[in-house]
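subagent[fold] <- orchestrator: predict structure for attached chain, return tokens only, no commentary.
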Amino acid sequence: WVQLTQDLEGGALVIWFEDDLPRAAELRDTYGEVQWRAMFGKYRALDGVMIARRIKLVVPREDHTVKIHLDEIDVNPEIDANSFTFVVPDGTAVVELDPPPRGASPR
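subagent[fold] -> orchestrator:
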């Protein structure tokens, strides 16, 4: 395996590669403690792109683990622009959580 380490403000990002594919990654704090770890496996070529179909995310400090299994994958599918438009349902009140920046026009 090849290990790459990128020093960051407040820690480091470490990524391990095997056969030119990322197999694991960790974010470590300034003391070297793992904040989160991701592991990637079961790669498959789809439309010329290697995709990890098994992903495991671990947050050791919180004892949380998430396993993701991807079975049906579409690479770069056409997505309707309306998919990114949010329409407030009738009868629903809009609540602004943060005030808009000074000089910004209201929505």
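orchestrator: received. Logging for downstream: The two ends are 51 Å apart (CA to CA). The chain has a mean pLDDT of 92.
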